[in-house]
Structure formats: C-alpha cells, structure tokens
Amino acid sequence: MSRKLFELGFDRNQPQTNRIALKVDSQVPTWMSGSFIRNGPGMFYVGKQRLNHWFDGVGMLHKFEFDQGKVNYESQLLDCSAARAATNEDRLTYSEFATDPCWGLFGRMRSMFQHGPTDSAKVNLAKIGEQYFALGETTMQIEFDIDTLESIGQYNFNQPKFGTSSTAHPHIVGQEAYNMITKYGPVNHYQIRKMDKDATKCASVKTLFPSYMHSFGMSERYYVIAESPFTVQSLNLIAANRPFIKNFKWNKKRGTRIWVIDQKSNQVVFKQEIQPFFFFHFVNTFDTESGVTFDMVTYPDAEVIQSYYLENLGNPDTSIPGGVLKRFDCNFSAGEVNISQLSNVLMELPHIDYDRYNAKSDYRYIYTLSLTNNNSSFYDQIAKIDINTNKSIFWNQEGCFPGEPVFVPSPQSKAEDDGILVTLVLDTTNESSFLLLLDASSMQEITKIIAPDPIMIGFHGQYFKN
Ligand SMILES: [Fe+2]
User: How far is the CA of 224 from the centre of ligand 1 (A)?
Assistant: First the structure.
C-alpha cells in the first residue's frame, strides 16, 4: 500500500480525543438519535516494540453521537488490563494475536499462567440486554458506558473458565446473546453458549484439531459451525514459543467441516466435510424446507491472514486478497451441501440489516467493503450487493479507504434498503478521516462529517439507537 495509507492507517499510535462537536451541514438527518461506535486498533507501538499484525493493535473506541442533526465525536483507548500494561508499563505483557511480549526462556509459560491471552476486546461491539460490550476473540467481554465510553470492566461470568477463544460475532436474539466458544484441552470442544451470567452451555461438539473461528451461523432452528482446515494442535498454544495464530497450520489433506445443531435438542443433525476454504464471516444463515442455508465470505486458504501482517501491509507492491461470497445449501436428507457463488465482487467485512433480516431467507442486500481492482492494496470501496439480481452498486473516492458500512434504518423504513449507511473513511489525500453517510438505496452521498484527526483503519462498528 502507499506509504501515506500505511503511516496514517496502521503504523502509529492514535491520540485520544475528548468529546468535541463536529462541523456538520443541514444534510445530517435530524431523526438520527444514537451513537455510531467503531472498534479497532489504536496503538501499534508499545514501548520499543512494534506489533506485528492488524489484529494485534491495542483496542480503541471511536464514537460519533447523533443528536437532532448535530454530531459529537470522542475516542478512547479501551480500558483493559492489556491497555493499562501497555500505557503504564510501556511494554507488552499480554499475548496478542500475532505478537508475543519479549520473553526469555520459559517466559511464555510463565506469562500464560500469570496473564493469559489479551483482554483487549478490539474487534466488535454488542448490546446485550441493556449492557454495551466491546468484544474480541476471547471470552473476556469489556463492558463500557455508552455515554462516556468509559470501561466499566470485564464482565464477570459465574464460571470464570468456560473456554478460551470465542468468536467476535455473537448472535443477538431479543435480550439474549449466543456465542461459539472454543475450549482447548486434552479433548477440544466447540460449545454454543448463551452469554448470560452462567454462560449456559447449549450444545457442544468435539474436535481433534480446533480451527481458528471468527464467526458462526444461527438460523431460527439451527446453529451452524464451520471448521476450516486452518487448525491447531492445542497443546502448542501453551507449550510452543509462538504467538497465538502462528500455531495454526493449513492442513492440505482435509476439507472444511460443517456441523448443524438443532436448537431444541442441542444435537448435531447434519455433519459433512466439504471442499476446503477459509472464512472470517458468516453473512446470514436461514432455515429452508430441506435443511439450512448459510452465506459466507470465503477464501481458498488462510493466506489472507498473512496479508494483514504490518510487514506486508507496509510493502508498496503487495495487494490484498478479496473474499468471495458463497451460498451453502445443506440438504439434510440428501446428505449434500450445494455450493454456489452469489457475486463476483471481492469483499470483506460484510454487513446486513441484522435486526430485521438475520435468519430471514428473503434478505436481499449485503453492504460490504470491496476492492476497486485486483491490485488494490487495501479495501478501497463500499459495495451494495443485491443477491437477487446479482447487481452491485459502489461508492469510492480516490485516495479514500472506508471502514465497514453499517446500516441504519429510516424511522418508517419498510423496504430493506430504506435507510442510511454509516462508515468511517480514511482520506489519504487530505490526511483526514470523515464519517460518510450514504443513502443505502441509491448509494449516493448524503454528507461527509470530518473528524478532528485521521483515524486508523479498524474493524467493526455498530449504531446504537438512543
Ligand atoms: Fe469480524
């Protein structure tokens, strides 16, 4: 990627910003009353150490608060043990995704027992019941105050050690949340748990070599677990002297395994090994007459994780691989999974109108980051994919790198795409960032709201209505 994009987007620490009113025009809809919060890395330099990977950075929250046509902005490092150690001690003391603290002999074992993996919940956000959480890929959820962005602290489950890894994408059903936990041990398990005080176990399947898991599927009747052949020998997570993700290897000899679990019986009702592929994101999962269907952004292998190393992102000649949107129709009685490609657009960070269309078979639109061409060094446009017509419309601007687009329905919204897309864009030409509001139906610009500083490239955002 260009030097400027790398320097502004990744290769630095982001200053925190106290609450400030942003300059807006009359186009900001007055009906928008709520906060768009974006999670992601805010710190890649800890002491003398530069972190290795996009998924390593110490987490930071950026909040844009909408109130009757006015917009306030503030940002804060996510207050957690890993961030406090990084800022107070000026050194990395927790294991991040692809960076370990500088350890001596036996240091890794000692550190795992003393500190465990990072609690920097830098990936996603969720409202569960009346509580707001920052989420990462562990079971440590950081609760925060939506008004002040201050961390309230790590959520205390009644049983502290029910699993190590979790997906960053729980499914929200009314006031409840469900997530898929990976429990490493002599026998490894994927467990579906309700994320209540007891972290109630709903279902469990065993696996010999657990895979790296970022999301899972949930329809109205089923949970869907997909295990790519990017797997780990779990003992290595403690014993091998390597950062977390470096213990995972692509196993060329096997495919991707699918488990479908009935939510009533909590039993596996369908299991199949299909062609190998890697993925981060389920897009949607819904019941059908013959079983269950899930849509996913897929890759032929796990090389995409390699491309997110800062060493590769900073190379002006490298390009980023885009994911391919595929549909997997599971037919239980036939024992088959039919796979079809839904779009030619290369994408990542897909988003749907989750509240109204998750688990719905008639959903039609996916809003996603995509690439203007095969040589794009990073995601440089937003696409709206119509999976019924296979037509797509785009927003892009020279030198601009948008974040995940988040759909906000209009107050009387009836059509699926009647609403606004909100996304935070890094503009390398003007060395600034702006919040972009697009008409989700036409993908036409409504307005841009310029932030006080350029904001580093992050992961997921959510709009929380007041
Ligand atoms: Fe994600």
Answer: 16
Count structural domains, the chain.
1
Rounded to the nearest angstrom, the distance between the alpha carbon of 110 and the centre of ligand 1 is: 30
Amino acid at site 380: D
Dist. CA 137 → ligand 1 center (Å): 9
| Alpha carbon of 30 to ligand 1 centroid (Å) | 30
The residue with tokens 């790519």 is 228
128 pLDDT band, cuts 50/70/90, is very high
pLDDT digits (tens, 9 = 90+) for 1-12: 999 999 999 999
pTM score: 0.95
What percentage of the chain carries pLDDT values higher than 90?
Answer: 84
Per the CB < 8 A criterion, the answer to whether 329 and 338 are in contact is: yes
- CB 29, CB 460: distance < 8 Å: no
Residue 184 has pLDDT above 60, yes or no: yes
Which 8-state DSSP code applies to residue 460? -
How does pLDDT run across 398-438, given as a tens digit for each residue?
A: 999 999 999 999 999 999 999 999 999 999 999 999 999 99
What is the 56 CA–ligand 1 centroid distance (Å)? 14
> Residue 188's pLDDT is what?
96
Phi-psi region of 13 (alpha: psi -120 to 50; beta: other; left: phi over 0): beta
Q: Say which residues have a Cβ less than 8 Å from residue 416's Cβ, sequence separation at least 6.
A: 353, 356, 357, 363, 364, 365
How many other C-beta atoms are found inside a 10 Å radius of the C-beta of residue 130? 7
Tokens 């008409």: give the residue: 439
Order of strands across the sheet with 324-331? 278-288, 291-299, 324-331, 336-341
Residue length of the chain: 466
Instruction: Tell me what the pLDDT averaged over the chain comes to.
Output: 94
Query: How far does the centroid of ligand 1 lie from the alpha carbon of residue 300, in Å?
Result: 18
332 C-alpha vs ligand 1 centroid, how far in Å?
28
Contact indicator for 334, 290 with CB cutoff of 8 Å: yes
Residue 377 domain boundaries? 3-465
Residue 104 pLDDT? 58
The CATH number given to whatever domain includes residue 238 is 2.130.10.10
CA distance 164 to 136: 11
Type of residue found at 286: F
Q: 115: CA distance to ligand 1 center in Å?
A: 25
pLDDT in tens, 360-382: 999 999 999 999 998 899 999 99
